[in-house]
Amino acid sequence: MNDFTFYSPTRFVFGRGAVDRVGRELAADGRRRALIVYGRGSVARTGTLQRVRSSLAAAGIEAAELGGVRPNPEIGSVRQGVRIAREMRSDIILALGGGSAIDAAKAIALATPYEGDAWDFFAKRAQPAAPLPVAVVLTIPASGSEASNSSVVSNDAEHLKSGINTDLIRPVCAIMDPELTFTLPPYQTAAGVCDMICHVMERFFSGEPAVTVTDGIGCSLIRSAIQMGPRVMADPLDYDARANLMWISTLAHNGLAGLGMGVAGKRDGDWSAHALEHELSALDTSITHGAGLAVIFPAWMRHVWSAHPERFLTFGKEIFDIEPVEENPLAAKDAIECSIDELQNFFVSLGMPRTLAELGLVEDDIELLLPGLLANRGERFGTFMSLTLDDARSIYLSALR
């Protein structure tokens, strides 16, 4: 087990009706002026936005709003939010939604006290110092951003999608009401299940030796997601399944599932599949992150498994109860390939795409993905297996059809 430092400052308020406590929770922390950041209307149509407004008003908290944040949030929305936050002298940024709203809120929190441009943090031209605090009312379990140290933002003008990782942007409070997820569309629900599973797998396949207790946590989260995913697809009002998925989303990406598997100075995992997918949704912002991962992660697995077959054998046994029938390399290869197929078949069973072609990509698009990957990750990247841009091209091509 490698050394680690784990910091998780988020206070979780979880359960039925939790959304109506947001004002009380923020007021207890001394907050008086909140900027609410949300997406393109679903929180208004379902009444969640009005419930948040009412809760804040009842607690004496002044609120301004930034709506219209798109999936794969764009830096323009962040800049707009910074202007509003400064004008109202906001003392907290409140994200209402899923990963896109939360990531935008984190970026706004970083940039509001900063004299330069918000994109400086994502272009690695500035280091975060003292951002505003962030709170979350979660409506889409998927990204785990409600408790993570990550924010990912797109810059359409530069055709880039870049992220930042710092404990300074971990939310101070996450309001988690599973009933708010009852109205999620099936595709978004399925993409969320894929996203949370992939967050665990990025850490499981870190390239570092096994850590028994952390492996146990990670594999349990994946097994639970595989169990709960079909339940909510069959019955969107299954509260227990919705609640379990909401909590899996958080634990999959708050760092717990990677403890002892990181290397000093690096993230707790490989994150190559995420890097490869980010270029997809930078090229086409309509691509849902979890759907892109459902295609890219199995393709990455098939490309790299030979670097550490023992990890894939453990994964197959723990997740799908698949083991080699004999003790020889050919049997191990068959078991590993069968495990990868089982994972991808599960994603597809939820309604996720199997190929990049299903997401609208053609072979000529592959070369368009590589410059952004180079800018974000360099000529070599990955800890499970060191990859080059040629490797990336091969993975993309293998996922195409």
Automatic annotation (TrEMBL):
Coiled coil: none annotated. Pfam families: ADH_Fe_C, Fe-ADH. Residues 9-178 form the Alcohol dehydrogenase iron-type/glycerol dehydrogenase GldA domain. One of its GO terms (molecular function) is alcohol dehydrogenase (NADP+) activity. Transmembrane segments: none annotated. This is Iron-containing alcohol dehydrogenase. Residues 189-399 form the Fe-containing alcohol dehydrogenase-like C-terminal domain. It comes from Coriobacterium glomerans (strain ATCC 49209 / DSM 20642 / JCM 10262 / PW2). Keywords: Oxidoreductase. GO terms for cellular component: cytosol.
